[in-house]
Each structure stands twice: as structure tokens, then as C-alpha cells.
Amino acid sequence: MIINEKYVFDPQIEIDQATMEEIVRRQANNIDPNSPIHHHRWVKDEPYLISIREKYPFLSEIYSLYVFPAGLQVEIHTDSKRSTVLNIPVLNLENTITTFYKVIDEEYQPFNKQSKILMEYDSKAVVPDYSYTMLKPLILNASIPHSISVNGNLPRTIISWGMKKNYQEAMEFFKNQNGLTSS
Ligand SMILES: [Fe+2]
């Protein structure tokens, strides 16, 4: 896979797949009644996630558990509350395509439609620039417009974990850690 690091990079984090599958099974219905956002889960409830956050303390204390049904199209958007996200594939990612877009209309203002979590973009204001299928943990720049297309027949499950670093800072951190010089 050729990665376009303007949008996404490989932090080379080792994640145990079987443990992640157990976590999503355990946490599937563990919804915090005090949280208005039903996909939020607490890191403190899962020792394996606590151990990852001990290594990378800039990861948030909450993460999102997303189960997207087959056929779902997530329209072009930016994540308004978080700019940089570690996404961890768990189940059925083979047929999901994420696309990043370039904004061609510089005057264009995205809008809040259904939720306050997403800023949505009209497809006339952007052009697709890069698409990929996530088959390992990746960090993405969620402040750039992107869309998700869940193809195939099975629901796609990921853990999506925000962080207190912007995209450039995260890239520098992981490249240094991995012994690579940042560009
Ligand atoms: Fe997003």
C-alpha cells in the first residue's frame, strides 16, 4: 500500500488483533448513560488499552467504537472535535474505502447538518485526491475532508482514538520513535 502522508501515516504500532476483537465484543453494548455520544468508551475499562495509553499518554482517555453496517456511506466531512486520530482496524475492513479530498472552492464553508461531531462538505466544493483501505493501525488527519464507503456484506468495526497532538506533531513523534527522520 502506498501511503499519502499528507492525509495518513503508519505509526508502526504493534496491536494484538485477538485482544482487540475481545475488547470490541466486551464493549459493544457498554454505553455510558452519562455520555451523549453513544460510540464513546472509556480507556480505563480495558487493561490492554490502558497499557497502550501508558506508552502514548497523549492518546485521549476516551475512544470511539464504530460499527458501521455494510452499505453505509459516511458523507464528506471533517471531525470537528478532533484533528488527529489513531484508527485501529478490528473486523471486516477489507471492503471499506476511505477517501480524502482537496477543497477546490476556497471560499467554501462546511456546515453542521445532523450532528455537531461532523462538519459536512458539499461534493461540488471538493475533488477526491487519495483513497485507501485500512489494513493496519494508521493515524489520520481528520481535519481534512474525507468520506467512508463500507462495501461488502459485513459490518466494519474499528476503534478510533483521538489524541492531544496535531497531525504534524504526531508524525514527528512516531517517526523519531521509529528511527526515521521526519520530512
Ligand atoms: Fe471522520
Short summary:
With 183 residues, this protein is of the alpha+beta class. The protein has one domain (8-176): Jelly Rolls (Sandwich), CATH 2.60.120. 17% of the residues lie in helices and 33% in strands.
Largest sheet: number of strands, sense, barrel closure:
6 strands, antiparallel
Integer average pLDDT: 92
Count of strand segments: 11
Which CATH architecture? Sandwich
Structural domain count: 1
| Oligomeric status | single chain
The percentage helix is 10-25%
Report the order of strands and helices.
Answer: EHEHEEEEEEEEEH
Radius of gyration: 16 Å
Percent strand: 25-35%
Number of helices: 3
Q: Which consecutive residue ranges, at least 5 long each, have pLDDT under 50?
A: none
Strands side by side in the biggest sheet = 1-9-5-11-3-2
First CA to last CA: what distance? Answer: 19 Å
**Briefly, what CATH class?**
Mainly Beta
Short key terms for the protein model shown above:
183 residues; 3 helices; 11 strands; binds fe (ii) ion; 5-stranded antiparallel sheet; alpha+beta; Jelly Rolls
